[in-house]
Design brief:
Radius of gyration: 30 Å
Helix content: 40-55%
Strand order of the largest sheet: 1-9-8-7-6-5-2
Number of strands: 25
Structural class: alpha+beta
Distance between the termini: 45 Å
Number of helices: 35
Shape: globular
Length: 876
């Protein structure tokens, strides 16, 4: 086994979330592999572990403390004089959280004996405490892992170790950067000894006290930070390539059937469908690994699970070759069946999957993927799925499940399996935000996909029409090379050398095959032959030659102009906390000290309306949901403590013993937090983005956060909306006066219908949406119906407002705009058919705040806290 594979193997056996050690750094720090274990150590650990297990079963006093001391001393080699405990721990190594009534301090501190420099804080919990779940009975609803991260940041110590005896979690909290978590399991130390090796090699006394500063664990983690960004970028690149592969596969199937399969499908719809497939797969990986679906059930694993499908396809490819997979299409049908199962559920004596609903998995959203025509219903129409090969599905899954890590010194990349259970929601959003600046286009003429530079930025892989390259070549080699340097970021000398290189017979055959057969193919090959060395390979290893009429993925807009930028959790956490503290507590606004802060009531917290004006993939909304849900649970528990005789509470905090079960908060702490996140997402969060795909990604991020077993997707269509938040009316009065400016107006719109009646009806309907828990598929269906009812009323006002914006920016004359707006207000049908000049001329989608969120912007949602959008984060 190579050293790279050795490190990749033990990394795969850890549970890692956030930044951790990168493969290149490990190869440099441990070029011969991890430190070896003394022959007697495994036996010693086995004896100690069995003694701990027996002590836990018998409830022996001090067994937990003895076991932790044993691990520090016998496994990590940390002497007792390097460990501080009890009164020996300085007062500075603690943090008081008066708003929660808690003080955090470690149980043990590992310090250098000579300098007393604190290197590691250790926190010990009972064996029954999950390190990633809130502690029962504590006011602050933070997990042991989160508590350690807070303690580390407050004390300036970077590393912490949290344990319940079985799980040993390293917490890395560098200042102003993302926190990383890596976990070892004591039982696995004996089954997979390489995990014991890694635990000792990284956290042993030698790594803290006997190596140069550049080789300490803290230094290795710092060196890995840059590589971690490269890893995330690499995953984003792989996912983008997978989307390209899927679009290419769909287009190839359409080509093979005489363009009869996708003739009515727009290229943008094809790209959106491919991206949606990838989002579905990410969701399924996360749900399966988190135990929310039936992974482990033999029937589900064999016929539905996406987590097992890659291994099945890879085994077939290894046995028979990928060419055989090219001729089979059952894997694609299996994916479509799984998507249907998640959306509509399965009710069978051997397999039960609850329906999750939502538009993410809706088979009718992209019926062409199932070979159905637009307007057909999946429950009543037979499907004839597009012939996407098993080979394409294998590459899709491997792009998501296997991270190809390039190693120092060149050579083949090392495949590292990703854990979606540990992958941060924000990281998933970052991966997908990179796809927002791409789109699908149909080639009007032969086009070549050119190879980019080998730099870390993988965006320089342009598609250039053959005629453009020919015109540049006519101007001379220098003109051609100068243009290629700009588009590919490759070195001019290297490009000239490539253009002069003769083709091998094998390469020539590859290019000729890609050009197609017959006279047309021969003519195309003759034209592109001078540029052949510049062409990159596609995802299947074929030359990226795009023939006229084919659909391909390319850059649409750059990320800056599309308004998308990744926001890491290290930024969202402090921003959200400091922005919302004055809203959830009484005291901060008055300048009172933290110990005098008072948490607001559940009703007041649920009345808050928080909006992100440019939400992207939802990083800030996700963190707001986390923060408000934790405060909401604390508010519930404060009421329960104040009313010990109360049977149960409603979400708003009303004490009641007579309401049905579904109207009361859950008793179980884990279910309670999940429930709090769901109702916070539905009632308190609002998001807007100009990119419709970003809106879908924001919903996906919140679904991943709020997903609960046997519960449908949280209904978010009413609060996460698409539009240009900087273009549109901001008050109903502007529409009534038909002017965005203050002051007198010469001509206004004729109000043949009551604006206020339409608004009041929409507000009432939307408030009914918020009041529903959405815990059953029937509830969600009712919410969808209510939103459709509200949209029908508001559609007329939106059409009129669009005409106003069009007139204000000069797209149409004012008289024409008034005429169209009046017609739209009179008839809902006319409102649907009247085209919006803004969309036609500038491809912008106005967002009219009082019409999209009337319960907040017009009536204030019936609460003093809802009378305005409190906070926004724009321009990321």
């Amino acid at each position: 086994m190579s050293i790279a594979r050795h490190h990749a193997e033990w990394l795969r056996l850890l549970e890692v979330s956030g930044p951790f050690l990168s493969l290149p750094v490990l190869l440099k720090a441990f070029p011969q592999g991890l430190d070896g274990l003394e022959p007697f150590l495994v036996g010693t650990v086995r004896s100690g572990y069995k003694e701990w297990q027996a002590g836990v079963e018998k409830g022996r006093a001090n067994i937990q403390d003895n076991w932790v001391r044993f691990v520090l001393r016998e496994i990590l080699g940390i002497r007792d004089d390097s460990v501080e405990s009890g009164q020996a721990i300085p007062e500075a190594i603690r943090v008081t959280l008066p708003e929660h009534g808690e003080t955090l301090r470690p149980d043990l501190v590992v310090a250098e004996p000579s300098s007393k420099l604190r290197r590691l804080l250790v926190q010990v919990y009972p064996p029954t405490q999950d390190l990633e779940k809130p502690i029962r009975g504590k006011v602050w609803k933070a997990s042991p892992a989160s508590r350690m991260a807070e303690l580390l940041r407050a004390t300036g110590v970077r590393l912490g170790l949290v344990t319940n005896g079985e799980r040993w979690m390293l917490v890395d909290a560098p200042h102003d950067e993302a926190t990383g978590y890596a976990s070892w399991y004591a039982a696995l130390w004996l089954e997979e000894r390489v995990t014991l090796q890694s635990f000792r090699s990284l956290l042993g006394a030698e790594r803290f006290f006997a190596v140069a500063e550049a080789e300490t664990l803290e230094a290795l983690l710092t060196q890995s930070a840059t590589d971690q960004q490269d890893v995330t970028d690499r995953l984003g690149y792989q996912v983008r390539k997978a989307v390209e592969l899927l679009v290419e596969s769909l287009d190839r199937a359409d080509h093979d059937h005489g363009r009869a399969l996708l003739g009515d499908v727009a290229e943008t719809d094809l790209y959106e469908a491919a991206l949606t497939i990838m989002m579905r797969l990410v969701f399924l990986f996360c749900a399966e690994e988190r135990g929310l679906l039936l992974l482990g059930d033999p029937l589900y694993d064999e016929h539905y699970a996406v987590s097992t499908l890659r291994d099945q396809l890879r085994e077939a490819a290894d046995q028979h070759g990928e060419d055989v997979l090219e001729r089979r299409h059952d894997a694609w049908c299996r994916l479509l069946a799984t998507f249907r199962a998640v959306h509509g559920g399965i009710s069978h004596e051997r397999l039960v999957v609850p329906p999750y609903g939502g538009n993410l998995f809706d088979p009718d959203r992209f019926p062409f993927l199932e070979g159905r025509t637009p307007g057909t219903a999946w429950r009543g129409e037979s499907a004839d799925p597009l012939p996407v090969s098993n080979r394409a599905v294998l590459h899709l899954l491997e792009a998501l499940q296997l991270l190809q890590v390039k190693l120092p010194g060149g050579g083949p990349a090392e495949a590292r399996r990703l854990s979606f259970r540990a992958l941060d929601i924000e990281q998933i959003g970052h991966v997908y935000e990179g796809l927002l600046d791409h789109t699908a286009r149909r080639a009007k003429e032969p086009t070549l996909g050119l190879a980019g530079s080998n730099t870390k930025n993988r965006d320089y892989e342009p598609e250039v029409s053959l005629s453009e390259l020919e015109q540049l070549r006519l101007k001379g080699t220098d003109a051609l090379v100068d243009s290629l340097v700009e588009s590919t970021k490759r070195n001019a000398k290297a490009l000239k050398r490539l253009l002069d290189e003769p083709l091998t017979p094998e390469d020539e055959r590859r290019y000729i095959t890609a050009c197609g057969s017959g006279e047309e193919g021969a003519a195309l090959w003759k034209r592109l032959r001078p540029f052949a060395p510049l062409i990159r390979d596609d995802s299947f290893g074929y030359a990226a030659i795009i023939r006229a009429g084919s659909v391909y993925v390319t850059e649409g807009t750059d990320r800056r102009s599309s308004g998308t930028q990744y926001t890491p959790r290290s930024l969202t956490e402090p921003v959200v906390r400091y922005a919302l503290e004055p809203l959830v507590y009484e005291g901060p606004s008055e300048g009172k000290p933290r110990e005098e802060w008072k948490l607001r009531s559940p009703a007041e917290i649920l009345a808050l309306k928080i909006c992100d004006f440019a939400c992207g993939s939802g990083a800030f909304l996700v963190q707001v949901c986390r923060y408000l849900a934790e405060r909401l649970v604390e508010a519930w528990e404060a009421l329960e403590a104040a009313n010990p005789g109360a049977v149960r509470l409603t979400p708003e905090g009303d004490v009641s013993a007579g309401l049905p079960e579904e109207r009361l908060i859950p008793k179980d702490p884990e279910e309670r937090l999940a429930y709090a996140r769901r109702i916070v997402a539905q009632r308190c969060l609002y998001g807007v983005d100009v990119n419709p795909l970003a809106v879908e990604m924001a919903k996906l991020s919140l679904w991943l956060l709020t997903l609960a077993k046997d519960k449908p997707f949280t209904f978010l269509d009413h609060c996460i909306r698409c539009g240009d938040s900087l273009l549109g009316i901001t008050s109903l009065d502007q529409l009534k006066r038909f002017s965005l400016a203050d002051g007198p107006v010469q001509k206004t719109i004729s109000q043949q219908v009551s604006f206020d009646d339409l608004i009041d009806h929409a507000i009432d309907t939307r408030l009914r949406i918020e009041s529903m828990d959405g815990d059953t598929i029937e509830h969600v269906a009712a919410q969808e119906g209510l939103l459709a009812e509200a949209e029908e009323k508001m559609g007329r006002l939106k059409a009129a407002a669009d005409q106003l914006v069009a007139a204000e920016i000069g797209d149409v004359g004012r008289d024409e705009a008034i005429r169209h707006a009046t017609a739209a207000l009179v008839s809902p049908d006319l409102a649907k058919v009247i085209g919006t000049p803004v969309l036609r001329s500038q491809r912008r989608r106005p967002f009219h705040w009082p019409l999209e969120f009337p319960e907040v912007m017009v009536k204030g949602g019936g609460s003093a806290h809802s009378s305005e959008i409190h906070h926004s984060w724009a321009g990321r």
